[in-house]
Write a structure and sequence with these properties.
The chain has 67 residues and is mainly α. It has one domain. 52% of the residues lie in helices and 6% in strands. It has three helices and two strands, in the order E-H-E-H-H. The chain has a two-stranded parallel sheet with strand order 1-2. Helix 1 (13-29) links the parallel strand 1 and strand 2 (34-35). The longest helix has 17 residues, at 13-29.
Length: 67
């Protein structure tokens, strides 16, 4: 499954938590989940502030995530 994040969208930490929950579920279920494009700069700053683990940061900064 590929998620397409609209360019210039305003997001907050609840959005990040929702996508992170989906990412963790996908990993556990053996489902491929990826982003169509890497996160934009504003979202990257939010992710860094949230203190996400390295696996999560890799997911958000990459346009492809493997199972």
């Amino acid at each position: 499954m590929t998620l397409r994040l609209p360019s210039g969208s305003a997001v907050d930490l609840s959005f990040v938590q929702l996508i992170e929950a989906a990412r963790v579920y996908a990993v556990r279920a053996g489902i491929r989940l990826s982003l169509a494009n890497p996160a934009e700069e504003e979202l990257v700053h939010l992710l860094q502030s949230a203190g996400l683990p390295p696996a999560a940061q890799t997911f958000w900064s990459s346009a492809e995530q493997t199972r």
